[in-house]
Write a structure and sequence with these properties.
5 strands; alpha+beta; about 40% strand; Alpha-Beta Plaits
Length: about 90
């Protein structure tokens, strides 16, 4: 079990980034959330199998959805907890 916080910078708001990240996380069986930040970045909290987390990170580092233009990705490891039960888009 692994939990990460991923901050994504670039053209990632207003281009469907949260929706496509939600779809990818659902496909990978992850729990957590994705939300826009006031500074224009997107924050992702994801928890699940280490291999599936790695696949999500690779998808983001490879550019994520075609509509976005990612300039920087910061990844922070967090302590896994049982506080998340599904993956959601936060508004």
């Amino acid at each position: 079990m692994k939990k990460v916080k991923i901050n994504v910078s670039g053209r990632v708001q207003g281009v469907g980034f949260r929706f496509f990240t939600y779809q990818q996380a659902q496909k990978l069986g992850l729990v957590g959330y994705v939300q826009n930040l006031d500074n224009g970045d997107v924050e992702i909290i994801a928890q699940g199998d280490s291999l599936q987390i790695s696949k999500l990170i690779k998808w983001i580092e490879n550019g994520g959805p075609a509509s976005s233009c990612i300039s920087h990705v910061n990844i922070f490891e967090l302590l896994p907890q049982n506080d998340l039960t599904s993956f959601n888009v936060r508004y």
